[in-house]
Amino acid sequence: MTSSDEDDSQQRFILALVLGLVLAVVVFVIGMAISRSRMPAAPSAVAEAIPDGASVRVVNGTVIFYFATASADLAAGANEALAAVVQGMAAGKKAVISGFHDNTGDAARNEELARQRALAVQQVLVSLGVPAEGVELRKPATTTGTGSNAQARRVEVRLGD
Predict the structure, then answer these.
(1) Could you give phi then psi for residue 60, rounded to 5 degrees?
(2) pLDDT tens-digit map of 6-42
(3) 3-state secondary structure of 78
(4) Which residue pairs from 119-127 have beta carbons closer than 8 angstroms and sit at least 24 positions apart in sequence?
(5) Is the separation of the CB atoms in 46 and 92 below 8 Å?
(6) 116: exposed, middle or buried (C-beta count within 10 Å: 0-12, 13-18, 19+)?
(7) 33: three-class secondary structure by DSSP
(8) Which superfamily, per CATH, for 55-160?
């Protein structure tokens, strides 16, 4: 075998190896896409049972704080749940906070409690180093929350412009 034949043989081997690797990656990616499409969808926050007490969840980029009856005390884990919001604010976005209440008891007291809950979340964001002017408290058109009473007593935090 001549040097030229050896070079051609090595080039064909390398080309076959590269094509094999590309094919393996394509098959892997397609396999992952198929397996993910067969996974059941995650349940929505509304369908999920919310315990009657303080808790926090992140659903589709929205941080949702749930509160115990007649309380504005935040659940443990507030700082961790708000980490993505803090990052978004560092990138120039605004945090929009809206408070909701259940439909039990005095309506005026519930409105005030929804406001106190929203302010409690705002205080956590400020304590994490975000400027207060970057946090907007937005009263929703209807402050009575939807779902069970445990789901209705909530504050939602979203990133806005």
Answers:
(1) 50, 45
(2) 777 888 888 877 777 777 777 666 766 666 555 444 4
(3) helix
(4) 119/72, 120/72, 120/73, 120/74, 120/155, 121/65, 121/74, 121/78, 121/82, 121/97, 121/155, 121/157, 122/97, 124/74, 124/78, 124/79, 124/82, 125/82, 125/85, 125/86, 125/89, 125/95, 125/157
(5) no
(6) middle
(7) helix
(8) OmpA-like domain (3.30.1330.60)
Distance between CA 134 and CA 155 in Å, rounded?
17
Is 59 exposed, middle or buried (CB count within 10 Å of its CB: 0-12, 13-18, 19+)?
middle
Number of residues written out for the chain: 161
Q: How far apart are CA 125 and CA 95, in angstroms?
A: 9
Overall pTM > 0.70: no
Q: Residue 89 forms beta bridges with which residues?
A: none
Residue that has been written with the tokens 């009575």 in this structure: 144
Tell me the backbone φ, ψ of residue 65, rounded to 5 degrees: -100, 130
- The residue type found at 145 is G
Residue-wise pLDDT for 67-107, tens only, equals 998 899 988 888 888 988 998 888 889 999 999 988 888 88
